[in-house]
Design a protein that fits this description.
This protein has two domains: 2-139; 151-198, no CATH class. It has seven helices and no strands. The protein has helices at residues 2-32, 38-52, 58-70, 75-118, 122-150, 154-169, 174-190. The chain starts with a helix and ends in an 8-residue tail after the last helix.
């Protein structure tokens, strides 16, 4: 009886470790195949954690992005932490952070050793030019998907337009725009948006 119980405990630990390794591997893939960081990672997050794994609902991911963008730090790391914690607690958060940051750490250390020798190379310069164009497309795709899921009401469209205008044409720090948007959302929900879906 004691042996059977011990085997179950060992199996449970092994299963948990396998799941954490799966989380690490998933976020490692996202970190390894995303150029441009932050916003460029968001489409890959959706593909991996929603479409491939089913760990997070499509509705939840928009809230995770909003919270991650509103907090200090890089949105990709914040979102990884949040998702990892949601699916496996603190160990899951650690596995997700380690996975998403490991590729960057490895690649940057490698590149830093040789960059001064190769940065003037014609082919390296052209490759970086192509990567920048691809990153712009990924960021545009992320903005489109977030906008499509978030801007479901006239209030959201107006708020997004005002925030975009303030960001583009003024020197107001983006954190103040985000905080103001949250405050306006709270006030609006208590006045004229009570019956409207968020």
């Amino acid at each position: 009886m004691a042996e059977a119980s011990e085997m179950r405990i060992r199996g449970s630990r092994k299963s948990k470790m396998s799941f954490l390794l799966e989380i690490f591997g998933t976020f490692f893939r996202v970190g390894a195949f995303t150029f441009g960081g932050g916003l460029a990672m968001l489409p890959l997050f959706e593909k991996e954690v929603i479409d491939n794994k089913g760990w997070i609902d499509k509705e939840d991911i928009l809230d995770i992005y909003a919270i991650s963008q509103s907090l200090p730090g890089v949105i990709a790391v914040n979102a990884s932490t949040f998702i990892g914690y949601r699916i496996a607690g603190v160990p899951g958060a650690i596995a997700a952070i380690a996975g998403v940051t490991a590729p960057s750490l490895i690649i940057i250390v490698f590149i830093a050793s040789f960059f001064t020798k190769f940065r003037e190379n014609f082919y390296v310069a052209k490759a970086l030019h192509g990567v920048r164009a691809a990153v712009a497309a990924l960021i545009f795709l992320a903005a489109y998907r977030i906008g499509k899921g978030s801007l479901r009401s006239m209030f959201g469209i107006v708020m997004a337009t005002i925030a975009f205008g303030l960001t583009l044409f003024t020197n107001i720090h983006v954190i103040y725009i985000i905080l103001a948007g949250g405050l306006v959302g709270v006030v609006a929900s208590k006045t004229w948006l009570r019956g409207e879906k968020p």
